[in-house]
Amino acid sequence: MRGTKRGLLVHKWGPQLEILSHTSTGAFLSHCGWNSVLESLSCGVPMIGWPLAAEQAYNVKMLVEEMGVAVELTRTVETVISGEQVKKVIEIVMEQEGKGKEMKEKANEIAAHLREAITEKGKEKGSLVRAMDDLVRAILSPKAK
Questions:
Q1: Tens digit of pLDDT for each residue in 91-140?
Q2: CA-CA distance, 124 to 130, in Å (whole number)?
Q3: Chain segment 53-99, per-residue pLDDT in tens
């Protein structure tokens, strides 16, 4: 592909987590389904949102307005998107200063919190590990039977 000015298009499955965790990944064009959101944030990668259906529009709204880790390109598959629009959102999210830098910092901060939630160091456990322990204890307790 070198020298052709064309990117690689994967028609079927691609190893999304491996791609997102690669150091050269600067942003993720996502439909903003919750699994994709969590995978992107766990890798500290800001998003370009293109919600298509279901809860995705609500997710992108939260990611943009409340969390500050995404920009929205458009909504639904019927929208006509210009190359200029795509260029604009890519430039925003990839900025080394300003909004792009802030988005990357916030995404990295969220990634650190997500890692903390699943850590287990001796008796010190992350919130997700503690919640799973509590769930298992509740299920196995004599009162639950």
A1: 999 999 999 999 999 999 999 999 898 888 877 888 888 898 899 989 99
A2: 9
A3: 999 999 999 999 999 999 999 988 778 889 999 999 999 999 999 99
Q: What are phi and psi of 99, to 5 degrees?
A: -60, -40
CB distance 25 to 45 below 8 Å? yes
Domain boundaries, position 108: 16-116
Output phi, psi for 128, to 5 deg: -70, -40
Q: Are strands 47-49 and 28-30 parallel, antiparallel or unpaired?
A: parallel
Domain count, the chain: 1
Residue 129 CB neighbour total at 10 angstroms = 14
Task: Look at residue 124 and tell me if it is in a domain.
Answer: no
- The β-bridge partners of 30 are 49
Q: Read off the CATH number of the domain in which 61 is found.
A: 3.40.50.2000
Instruction: Answer whether residue 24 is part of any domain.
Output: yes
pTM check: above 0.85: no
